[in-house]
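How a chain folds remains the central question behind the approach discussed here. No coordinates are needed to read the tokens, only the vocabulary itself. For completeness, the protein is quoted in full, as a sequence line and a line of structure tokens:
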Amino acid sequence: MNTRISKTFEALFALEDIREVLRGALPTGPDADEEAALKEGVARVRAILDDLEAGTGNAQQSKIAGILDVRSREEEYINIQPIQAAGRLTPEARKALIAYGDGYSTCDACRKPFRLDKIQKPPIASFHEDLAKFVNMDVARVVPGARRGFQAVASSLVNKGDPVIVSALSHYTEFLAVEGAGGIVREVPLSPKNLMEPDSAAEKIEEVIKSDGKTPALMMIDHVDYQFANIHDIKGLAKVAHQYDIPFLCNGAYTVGVMPVDGKALGADFVVGSGHKSMASPAPSGVLATTDEWAGKVFRTTAMTGDVTNRKFGIKEVEMLGCTLMGGTLMAMMASFPAVRERTARFEEEVKKSNAFIEGLLEIEGTKVLSEYPRKHTLSKVDTTGSFDKVAQVHKRRGFFLSDELTKRGIAGEFAGATRAWKLNTYGLSWEKINYLTRAFQEIAEKYEIPVNKGYIQN
């Protein structure tokens, strides 16, 4: 690990040790032993900071709690991991984790009616309102990941044996949500360009009505799919769903928090987003938003009464199991939100950077992009079977040679050992990093005598 990065973590951990002394002290102040420990801790931090400033000292590789390695991927590398790029925390989110890491820290000021989305301090209630406005829906809830949003909707709308329309590119968690509710998935086939077409969806619905004897209970389609990262015609698909009175869920796991998403303009009844995938938030986190029409059903409150105690918990929402995100996860999500909201306005710039890198990659002879091209998103699937995989066939490290070469250049996140079809994400990288990334791949190609054709554009 780089010395300065190591010293930064060492200083942070040393400050936490000082914090622990303060936590152990009485409200009246530290005793003599605690004062001595504080002075010793401060002196240690000063020494570490001196090393940090000068770039001196030994890099500490100690483990957290004796078992956990320090995760320094974001500090040491350009990370192009497809599901991590837009989940990279903001500085504010990291500060929130430090301050609110204790289990039920969000509940310090919880008062009646004792529900997460009603808490005023911290401003969790207003955050829920902001989330709904952010995706232009009426009501929103935070959930432990997009998958729990799918689950909440499916368990509310789908009964045993009900067909549910999904994409042939849908995520496995959509399948599980339908299965958990007792439903049956029915997939809309892909177009030759790996897109979901409204006409195909209409044909599938007609087919399902005939084969299953009932209208599908729900349609769930990915705004941007995880396999090719193509942007699908959500507005057209939602229109088709509504022609058959089928509620429509837009899976915005790769769009909410990354690009502008207007749920009502898209015609969605539900919008689901992923905090840890696209909203600069820790895992597990996400958002489920809906319209007033469906809020009462999906966010229904419990009507059950205890047969011995006669207890009632009527304010608690069944699909949310009362409350969802507590502690540091929610606070970090809230802390990132201003930056996330602002960055969606710059999505076109992110797409330009994505295309600049992909163009540079395509200059490497034998390389292809399997996603829509030019790119409309920062997540892309590429095929290097005709380029880097040729080297892998004869290299003693096989496909891992590419990982080795990228690691030497400070690049991480590619699928280790993959040199055929694999995915990457450039979201949030500066132009300097985009240019560095492009040069690095081309330098590796040239090192292994793979031709690089400057100015090549894929047809």
